[in-house]
């Protein structure tokens, strides 16, 4: 029996000529694909057409990353060419064809239900101001609890006034506000256009004009301007506006880890940009390396993904029990419910790293095995967590092993994002008691080569010494907290200005409620364990 199929819309940021797309059907009994090429008439977008065109590899990535596939054999090769990171200069990228290869970064396009994805894209079409890059994230898109009863208790009512059917089905068991990030080229122009169209989205700051709004956005916190509790197309959303340059800088340098941290977890990219895709691949590789420095020689997938997911919450004031702003089990809930999506995001990277590998006889030999559970979820109309029995390897996933050789460890340290790596260097300068002049020489030797250099970024004696320290998990964690703490705190304070007092208070109360429910869930689990013992 053939399953229902729908056309896949290419990821485009601008109006263009008719773009070929596809209709796909899945023959469940034989697990084979039937393809029929059709031509779909052009559809519009308010953003500039210079970002992408019908010949863009973005279209290929859409087909590769979002259409249902029944076998791993149809998965495109995502192997990354050797040395791509050494000259990964996102500022020189203007088209997808300039990326290392056609399928580069398609692991970032997490599979979800097509109808729900289309409903979110329709939200974007309602904005006249040009959005060049966009993704949806959070519990409104990806469930953050494998315990469905807990999820439904968390929010048994829907915040959406008149949601499309696809949203209602996907959020079955409890409606959630859908969070968006919009990447824009010119902050002041964007807000000027949006304030004319949607003045009700803004707080009292709109009376000061788009120049002031853009200054508040760019100069305070992490460079993001949030408008919460906004209804678009019958859907309640929160959207953050951020400059494309700010996104790329954070992804490649980790100067705040605000956007980078969100993109280290599964998100649904709705409009792609070649610069961001390249910078985000750097970010994801850095997340894996950072986690490896914090993990022992042998670990599980679940431990790896939990470490990665926890990066963005270290130093976040909302995780402080005194404030009670976040569910204390948030990281564990995210990984428990989204392990298949984490696999789709990170397994292609793990397979390209020379110092870590799966050490488990249960790992399938087929290419693309990491996508199977995600494909099954994409075919479902509900966004509920996939049952543990249906996940290959279970909730702990497969076992992995990393090479603890000092040279390998030193290379990982050397390839950490520049801004973050500097903090780690300063930490160990104090511990090793390196004199200032000698340390300056170390820093000079570790300075990133210019974009024309072909020299590989390899760790020296200093990096190898750092990589073999017993306290490196704590040192790395300390650097993460220092990176996140102030931008996250000031961003939260800025939220009072951008959202206004009323909406800010409402947001805080909802976060506190989630925190209480999370504590109750944690206590319940502890009681259950005691009874089992």
TrEMBL record:
Q: Where is this region: Disordered?
A: 41-85, 510-533
Q: Where is the composition biased (Low complexity)?
A: 41-74
* Swiss-Prot/TrEMBL keywords: Lipid biosynthesis, Lipid metabolism, Magnesium, Membrane, Mitochondrion, Mitochondrion inner membrane, Nucleotidyltransferase, Phospholipid biosynthesis, Phospholipid metabolism, Transferase
**Signal peptide positions (record):** none
Q: What GO biological process terms does the UniProt entry carry, in alphabetical order?
A: cardiolipin biosynthetic process; CDP-diacylglycerol biosynthetic process
Citing just one GO molecular function, the answer is: phosphatidate cytidylyltransferase activity
Where does it live in the cell?
Answer: Mitochondrion inner membrane
- Membrane topology value: Peripheral membrane protein
Q: Write down the InterPro entries for this protein, in alphabetical order.
A: Tam41
Pathway, per Swiss-Prot/TrEMBL?
Phospholipid metabolism; CDP-diacylglycerol biosynthesis; CDP-diacylglycerol from sn-glycerol 3-phosphate: step 3/3; Lipid metabolism
Q: Which GO terms describe its cellular component?
A: mitochondrial inner membrane
**Which cofactors does this protein require?**
Mg(2+)
- Provide the E.C. number(s) assigned to this enzyme: 2.7.7.41
List all Basic and acidic residues biased stretches.
520-533
**Which PANTHER family does this chain map to?**
PHOSPHATIDATE CYTIDYLYLTRANSFERASE, MITOCHONDRIAL (PTHR13619:SF0)
What protein family is recorded? Belongs to the TAM41 family.
Q: What is this protein called?
A: Phosphatidate cytidylyltransferase, mitochondrial
Question: From which source organism is this entry?
Answer: Aureobasidium pullulans
């Amino acid at each position: 029996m053939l399953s229902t199929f729908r056309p896949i819309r290419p990821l485009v940021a601008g109006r263009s000529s008719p773009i070929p797309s596809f209709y796909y059907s899945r023959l469940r009994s034989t697990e084979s694909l039937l393809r029929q090429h059709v031509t779909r008439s052009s559809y519009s977008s308010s953003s500039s057409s210079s970002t992408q065109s019908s010949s863009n590899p973005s279209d290929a990535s859409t087909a590769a990353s979002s259409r249902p596939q029944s076998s791993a054999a149809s998965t495109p090769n995502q192997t990354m060419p050797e040395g791509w990171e050494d000259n990964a200069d996102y500022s020189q990228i203007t088209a997808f064809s300039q990326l290392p290869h056609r399928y580069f970064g398609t692991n970032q396009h997490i599979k979800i239900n097509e109808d729900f994805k289309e409903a979110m894209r329709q939200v974007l079409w309602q904005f006249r101001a040009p959005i060049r890059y966009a993704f949806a994230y959070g519990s409104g898109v990806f469930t953050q609890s494998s315990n469905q009863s807990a999820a439904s208790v968390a929010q048994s009512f829907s915040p959406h006034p008149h949601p499309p059917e696809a949203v209602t089905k996907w959020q079955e068991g409890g409606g959630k506000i859908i969070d968006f990030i919009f990447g824009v080229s010119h902050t002041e122009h964007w807000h000027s256009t949006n304030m004319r169209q949607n003045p009700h989205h803004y707080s009292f700051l709109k009376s000061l004009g788009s120049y002031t709004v853009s200054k508040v956005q760019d100069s305070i916190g992490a460079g993001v301007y949030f408008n919460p509790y906004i209804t678009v197309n019958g859907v309640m959303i929160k959207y953050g506006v951020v400059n494309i340059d700010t996104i790329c800088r954070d992804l490649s340098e980790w100067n705040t880890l605000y956007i980078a941290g969100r993109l280290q977890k599964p998100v649904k990219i709705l409009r792609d940009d070649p610069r961001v895709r390249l910078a985000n691949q750097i970010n994801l590789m850095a997340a894996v390396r950072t986690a490896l420095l914090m993990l022992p020689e042998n670990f599980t997938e679940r431990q790896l993904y939990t470490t990665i997911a926890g990066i963005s919450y270290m130093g976040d004031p909302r995780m402080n029990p005194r404030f009670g702003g976040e569910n204390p089990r948030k990281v564990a809930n995210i990984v428990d419910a989204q392990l298949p999506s984490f696999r789709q995001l990170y397994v292609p990277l793990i397979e390209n790293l020379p110092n870590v590998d799966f050490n488990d006889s249960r790992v399938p030999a087929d290419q693309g095995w990491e996508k199977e559970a995600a494909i099954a979820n994409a075919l479902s109309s509900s966004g509920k967590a996939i049952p543990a029995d249906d996940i290959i390897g279970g909730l702990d996933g497969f076992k992995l092993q990393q090479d603890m050789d000092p040279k390998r460890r030193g290379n990982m340290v050397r390839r950490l994002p520049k801004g973050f790596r500097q903090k780690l260097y300063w930490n160990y300068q104090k511990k090793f008691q390196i004199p200032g002049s000698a340390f300056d020489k170390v820093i000079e030797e570790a300075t990133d080569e210019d974009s024309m250099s072909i020299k590989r970024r390899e760790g020296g004696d200093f990096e190898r010494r750092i990589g073999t320290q017993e306290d490196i998990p704590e040192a790395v964690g300390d650097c993460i907290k220092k990176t996140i703490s102030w931008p996250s705190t000031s961003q939260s304070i800025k939220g009072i200005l951008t959202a206004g007092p009323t909406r800010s208070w409402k947001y805080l109360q909802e976060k506190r409620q989630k925190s209480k429910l999370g504590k109750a869930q944690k206590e319940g689990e502890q009681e259950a364990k005691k009874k089992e013992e």
